Amino acid sequence: MFFAASLALPLVWFIARFIVNRKRSDIRYAPGPSAKSASWIWGHELEAFRGQALEVYSKWMYTYGPLFKINAAFFHNDIIVVGDHAAVQHIFADIFTYMKGPSLRPITANIVGKGVLWAEGEDHVFQRRLLSPAFTLESVKKMADVISECAEKVQCLFTWLEWKFDQGKTFAGFLGPVVIRAFPSIVSLSLKSQNNTAGLSTAQIIDNISTFIMAGHETTGGALNFALMELARSSRVQQKLRREVQQFRDALSYDAIQKLEYLDAVTKEVLRLHPSVPHTERVAMRDDIIPLATPIRMRNGTVLTSFKVQKGQVFHIPLMTMNTNPKVWGEDAGEFQPERWLTPNAIRPSNELPHGWSNMVTFTDGPRLCIGYRLALFEFKVILATLSRSLEFHSTDATVNRKDILTLQPVVDGKCGVLPLRLTLASHT
Ligand SMILES: *[C@@H]1O[C@H](CO)[C@@H](O)[C@H](O)[C@H]1NC(C)=O
Ligand SMILES: *[C@@H]1O[C@H](CO)[C@@H](O)[C@H](O)[C@H]1NC(C)=O
Ligand SMILES: *[C@@H]1O[C@H](CO)[C@@H](O)[C@H](O)[C@H]1NC(C)=O
């Protein structure tokens, strides 16, 4: 008797919890790919990972709308994939309710240490406050001179290597990361320009260095790779960009760079199509109601304008999908068209686009908006300007696949991080 009761009680509790939980969350009737199409062990997660970066999420978002659920691997509760602008803005704005997923945190800790990318809540606010003086507009302008000097050295190097490039060599390597390695890291820059590292232990400094190498160099280098790929594919864009940057023969100062309109449009277009971090994850730390910019039709026919979630809910936020959704950016959303940023009304008003830098979620948004975005943009632009005024980029016939491996990586012939490119010296006009 006692034995039976001890079995029955947990069962009753389990069923009661299930019923109560169902009321606390709207996930039950959320749209999404059929559970039958999911693998027993991997849920829908393997299918999403197998394709090109974010391709499957983009397809599903087109089919099911900007909020849908998928089956998680290892029998975890269903995951919500959310690209609705209001919902994502809400999630990014509240760093105390929405924290990085437990699946992402150990990986982040391993790769970049327990730094500002890893920290949550109060710890994150504290670290961010200590680091932010290094990333203000003023600080970036101070660093800009050092960066421009490096860019000039790189350009000298190219002239020096003229005879090599003249042969039209194919570079099977990452030109972006190689060039960016010639640049000082944010750590050495900020150590030089101010003393905001006082009182940190060696371990803390090492943690911070790996954060900035990973978050700064790796991502900017990757984005440069894709920029060169796009320029190689479009000689029209490449020539237009070269004409603009060749007008500036002096050092590319911070203010000079800001004046280059077409360079800015090319930069935005590269970061829209090839965000260095293609998706991110969050977990709800308490029950919440998430606002929706676009109402969603549930499987039971109800239309919801906000969505109830319960504590522990995992979210995938497909940044790349949000940047390239044809329902938001138009039918040519997947094409490299820098002109869209310069043509009046070519993109929708900002309240109909995602919330974030230039209406994209490339740097995410809210209190965790990439702390180094100004520096990253400047570095990206200086290097792209320097490279494209001296060199011409030509496509090879290699097929470039893109994979989401925490950061966006080109994959050619099964090799990761390799992007073949043919270079020749550009003629000066
Ligand atoms: C349909 O689903 C919504 C959202 O979970 C819920 O509020 C509503 O009560 C459901 N309607 C029916 C008839 O089950
Ligand atoms: C970096 O510095 C902060 C303080 O600025 C410290 O709390 C943290 O542990 C250090 N590590 C990383 C990676 O940020
Ligand atoms: C460095 O710290 C000292 C004392 O802590 C302060 O007086 C000085 O202004 C700081 N320098 C910079 C560049 O912030």
Describe this structure in words.
This is Cytochrome P450. This protein has 429 residues and is α+β, with helices and mostly antiparallel strands. It contains 17 helices and 13 strands. The protein has helices at 2-24, 45-50, 55-64, 85-93, 105-112, 121-131, 137-160, 162-166, 175-181, 186-193, 202-233, 235-246, 254-258, 261-273, 319-324, 326-329, 373-390; strands spanning 67-70, 79-82, 98-100, 170-172, 280-284, 288-297, 303-309, 314-317, 391-394, 401-405, 407-412, 415-416, 420-425. The chain is globular. It starts with a helix and ends with a strand. The protein binds 2-acetamido-2-deoxy-beta-D-glucopyranose (3 copies). Residues 26, 28-29, 298, 300, 302 line the site of one 2-acetamido-2-deoxy-beta-D-glucopyranose. One 2-acetamido-2-deoxy-beta-D-glucopyranose binds at residues 113-116, 127, 130-131, 200, 204, 207-208, 211.
**What is the arithmetic mean of pLDDT?**
79
Report Rg.
Answer: 24 Å
Strand order in space, largest sheet: 1-2-8-5-3
The portion of residues forming beta strands comes to: 5-15%
By CATH, the topology of the largest domain is Cytochrome p450
Overall body shape: globular
Domains counted in the coordinates: how many? Answer: 2
The DSSP helix count reads 17
List low-confidence stretches: 160-174, 189-200
Major beta-sheet overview: 5 strands, mixed
User: Are any ligands bound, and if so which?
Assistant: 2-acetamido-2-deoxy-beta-D-glucopyranose
Compute the separation of the termini in Å.
94 Å
Tally of DSSP β-strands: 13
Q: What is the CATH homology-level superfamily of the largest domain?
A: Cytochrome P450
CATH architecture of the largest domain: Orthogonal Bundle
